[in-house]
Amino acid sequence: METLISVIGGANVDLSATLNDAFIAADSNPGHIEVGYGGVARNIAHNLSLLSARTQLLTVFGGDLFGGLLHDYCKQQGIDIHLSDRVNAQRSGIYLCLNNHGGEMIAAVADTEVIRSITPEWLAKRSGEINLSDYIVADTNITEDSIRWLMENVTAPLFIDGVSTTKAHRVVNALSKAKLPYLHTLKLNLKEALAVTEAATYAEAAQKLLDLGVAHVYITLGSEGVYCRNAAEEWLFPALPGEVVNTTGAGDAFLAGVVYAHSKGIDFPQTAQYGLMAARATLMSPKAVNPDIANILL
What we know:
- By secondary structure, this protein is of the alpha/beta class.
- It has a single domain, classed as 3-Layer(aba) Sandwich (UDP-N-acetylmuramoyl-L-alanine:D-glutamate ligase).
- The chain is built from eleven helices and 14 strands.
- An eight-stranded mixed sheet has the order 4-1-9-10-11-12-13-14, sandwiched between helices. It has a four-stranded mixed sheet with strand order 3-2-7-8. A two-stranded parallel ribbon has the order 5-6.
- Helix 7 packs across helix 8 (202-212).
- The relative contact order is 0.14.
């Protein structure tokens, strides 16, 4: 039977503003604004769907106009959302980011309150179908309790994306409270990794994460590439060359590439090469998900 990947977490409308010139604080800056569909989990699911992986997204859509647009767009992209919900009383998730004229993010604001509706009870009602999955991916937009529930109850390898320095702490806290602390894969960027471990270097951060119960650690380093580590080996892969148009979604694409590679039987750490190729494809696109990722990656 075809491999099934379940992705659990946020789905947002993305508002991405990119400046024409250098940023001037407390002023109106010329630039251009893109409206798109994002959310870490939704981006990962979309990338996997474009790579022809059988993917289902478990998220919560708001009851407003944005929620309807997100819901319909996911279906149009071939993402199975039959386990998702729409909550009429909630506003939809919105991600607003400001990029400099080179495409690098200056700042961002994420309103993901609707995703708090994904509780352990919400997940438990879907546990039978979740555990039909061959791989499970979650982002830390969901609560610490929900992350812990996944760690303790899912039967397939669990991959988690740290999302941000604030939300990545939820993984560490969940591991510290889990009955049997274990996580197959954790992907963080450097800032997140140093923040959650209070380490001085990415190598020290990775070791601390392994000690907490993470089996495979990927720490993305932006233009420096990615550092990968498990109990047996460590690797530092350089970033792949390519023009940077927009950084939004690159980390999500990286994890999608890693999960896709695992689903094809590729071993750690070579899975990181797929992650880097997927990230590069996204960096070269103005969208959070590059619609041509399959042509670039496969």
